[in-house]
Amino acid sequence: MIPESNATAASRSSEQNTNSHAEATSSGAVNQSEDDSGNENRQKSVRRRKRAHKGSENVKRKSAKAGCSRASRAGGSKQKHVEAVTLFEVITMGRSAMQAVIDDWIEAYLADRDSSLLDLISFFIQCSGCKGVVTAEMCQSKEDSDVMSKMVEELDEDSGLQYKKFLAFPWILTVTWPMDTDSAEYPLVQSGPYGRWFHSEFCDFVSVLVCQCQHSVIFDSYLMNTLISLLTELSNSYVRAFRHTCTLAAVKVLSALVGVALSLSVGIENSQKLYEVQKTKTVRQKSSQQLERIQKKIMELQEKKAEVESMMDIIFKGVFLKRYRDVLPEIRSICMEELGLWMKLYSSVFLNDSYLKYVGWMMHDKLPDVRLKCVLGLQGLYGDPVLLPKLDLFTSRFKERIISMTLDKDNEVAVQTMKLLLLISKTSDEVLTPEDYKQLLQLVYSSQRPLAATAGELLFSRLLSTVAPTSETQDGLNEEEAHQQQRLKALLQFYQESELHKHVVYLVDSLWDCGGALLKDWPTLTSTLLQDSSSHSTGFSLAEQAVLVEILVASVRQASEGPALAGRSGAKKVMNAREKKIQTDDCLKLTEHLLMVLPQLLSKFSSSYDIVASLMRIPQYFLPECPEAENTQVVSSLMAEMEAALDLHSGPAVLEAAARSYLSLCGEETSWCSAARSARDALVQRWVEKLTALLGDSLKGDCFSADEDKLRDILATLKKLRAFHNCHDLSRWSLFDLLSPLLSVERGAPSEVLLEVLQCLSYVMLWSLNTSGETLTCREKAVAQRLRLRLFCERSHRCLSHGDLSVRQQAFLGACDVLTAHSYQLHLWDPTSFGPLLFTTSPKLQRALLTFVCVHVFVGSDSDNQSRVSEGSEVERLEDLHRRRNLLAAYCKLIVHGVLEMSMAAEVFMYYMKYYNDFGDIIKETMYRTRQVDKIESARTLVLSLQQLFMRLKREQESGGRAHPGVQTFTSIKELARRFALTFGDLVKFRECVVMIHRNGIEFVFQEFSQTPGTATPPYLSYLTILSEFSSKLLKPDKKTVFSYLQKHTAEHIIDLREETWQPLIYYRASLLAAAEGEDAVSYVSSDRKPYQPHRSPFSKPKLEGSRSPCPFSPVESKVSKVPRLSGSPSHQDKAAETDPFSVPLEPPAKRLDTEGSVIGTSNEPGDDTVEVEL
């Protein structure tokens, strides 16, 4: 960074790292070279290390005393000695040292401004990460046309250097740097904490520089002119580093100038006040000289302010107007962020429609960060009531765009836009119309919690907080309770008007942060529900009471579990100590209150099924330890009301909620554990006795008969036992012995009864297996458990052929779940204690399970299935797909856990591509899990699925019948093989698997084949085309081994490669040899299929290594678009009639690339004589 002669600068390399000691001259060069490691400051501590200054700066200090004294003042009482450093190095030393060094620079500038300016120029070049040379020469005239024509920015390819020549009056600067500098990371964009730290320190330096110069050299018409012209020119460079760094510096200079203008405005205002005070004095007290001094000072300050505003205008027009639409999103974000700051701080100049339009335009930017900076800037403007009158035109012009940004794809932009609209609604009532509010308030049901919470705040401030209490209070209610009821009424009205959503729990979650006091007022909610609606005119209807109950349950859940909701993201996952304390206090309050009131609510709404189902969920959120639980009468009252509700209702919602509530109440840590368990046991005992009596009358011998009333009672009791058995262990009531006879009668029970019985028996077996470690204390009990398991599997196997689909599906799911649980318990079994005995599934049941999956899951082709279900509703289609996915997942669990042989997954794997949209994820996960268990066996299963599909297609073509829907085409089988090959990612890890696939495929084709005149080719020869899809997954040594293995099997046969029937073999060999030699299969096939010259024998070429049969392969690269078919034999057409009907034309192996490559298509039409090869 030392100016030196131009000749010296030209001879110096751009890799130099030392500074010259020459004195500053009017024409010099500034070296900006750094070491190869880039900025050394990244590796050094700011306070602990300070590099020694090995050379002097452009400005040599006349005396080290001044610099050291200022640096020592910045160091505080320790009086640390700070050695002379460059301006770039001062960034690493903190703000206090920065001020001291800048003060030294100002003193040096006053002594020698040209050399000091070169130091400042060097600083900005170096901050751009430029490792090059800066050459400076003086310019006498800024308007010299000859000089302006030399301002270029070009690339010298011969020398490998880039250079930029520009005017920073009075300097003509030439920056030269290597070509690869633009692609390297410069300080502002470096990843990690260093990039963020440098950005902050660089901005601080620019701000401190302008701040320290505002009282001295900023108005000398030299420093700022040079600095502004420098930053303007570099911000227009095509080099990203210069453009980004200098744009940031320029807008920060403008921001600092805004601070200078504000301080000048304050000085002018104070001087004017002083002038007015002096004018009001009497003639004797008034001093004309003092008035003149004040007037002169005011004029000087106004001139300085005008000069500063002129500087700001130059920077805005020269930098901002050119860079606010820059291709680099970081530059656009910087411009929008600083513009919002200028309009807020210096509204008299910047806050008008001429500047606001840029914010409005950039709200349409494609980058979220730019839109976010615009919204954040507008928040600062709309948050100040003084600035609102200047925003009227902007608001009317861009209101629609702002409202639409609440649906922005970036969540943060949408949230901040909603906060902006919340500010607008609070400050201006007439801006947003009722239609706008209706659109915005619907966002309380958004899947993003931050956006929904902000919309909830808008709802609360707009509707709920502005509700005025009625003048006439109701009987028995004070003014506060009446006001709360009016707010609840408004909330209910909003919920009923929003017809798009029916999720109260999401509405409560959205209002929780701002309206928690209303939602946590459980006494008001319960008193409103318990009051008689006929006693006053403003009561709630039954529908409104049902919604209030849902709000009550949702608020209880929110207070107990927090904002974690299914389908809503963005909630805070970890609570701090204060939030946990609030949650515990809320749970204690709701438990103490609702434990007393819930029996009354159940009693009042006992006839309403939906309300009872909601109220039954409340005990799940009670705090286990509560002082009110010591009152046994309260707990007994609650249990009695819950039991009475269960006697009235047997719907799934009530039963599930009741079972879960009893499970929560019967926990060992609860205070009411004994009372709850006694009530539950008595309830279950009553149901079992009732069911025993009913079945005793209905089940006579091998026949089941019951009238409608008795059947209704049996079904209701079974539903209750099934719901409770799902949550509670009811093993001591021996339900297996009670219910299993229903599955063995000849004249079976109705489908509804069988469905409940199958579910109950599956729960019995699952609980038995789950508690094996506790209940199996001897071998006799283990044998009895295995007998029950065998009996359950036999009964389920019998139900798989039932006429009702739901019964078949439940029997399948129950058998799969129980067998999976048994296998899991065997893996967890401790050999030192008794556990479940080994149980092997019968072959008949295994085949029945596989058949069930093929018949009920893979129904027809995927396209046919889509068109079939599209006739129904979308909901029915999704429910049917969900059921089929559950069935497939249950079967795949049996494969993964080893209940079924892995080979039985072949039937599932063959549908991987055909049903990829519906079941692709399940099948792929099954492949992954089975490969973890045994990768060789898993690969053998993949081969088995391909071979089975191939043989089905072969038989279908030989039979000549109508196409069977379960048979896939040859192209689809080949595509399936390609997708299977893609699952072998690590070639080294799956080396044995891929080799086994090829060996198995070769044996499949050539084993047990004896060549005769009638059968010249193997019947399964076309399978080699499918097998070639795995050739790309072979390592080079393995490809040679596989090729030798292929030659071993083909050596015994007479093979004429000119025959069309042997093309699959040619194709497969090409896929092996091409990759082994670094060529592609297309080149091999193209060269092989060229007609042979008449005077040369097709077998005259040397044999390949390890080959016993003649091979005419010649790896010649071909780039033709069409490959002619083999026509070397004069009797080609006669032989074509004897060709294998299943043989396919030549189809090179798929060598696919991600972005570009060859796309190979094969025509199978009989009249086509060419194979399309598009390269």
From TrEMBL:
The keyword Cell division applies. Residues 284-311 form a coiled coil. Residues 44-53 have a biased composition (Basic residues). Residues 320-405 form the SCD domain. It is found in: Nucleus; Chromosome; Chromosome, Centromere. Residues 1166-1175 have a biased composition (Acidic residues). InterPro entries: ARM-type_fold, Cohesin_Scc3/SA, HEAT_SCC3-SA, SCD, STAG. Part of the cohesin complex which is composed of a heterodimer between a SMC1 protein (SMC1A or SMC1B) and SMC3, which are attached via their hinge domain, and RAD21 which link them at their heads, and one STAG protein. This is Cohesin subunit SA. It comes from Acanthochromis polyacanthus (spiny chromis).
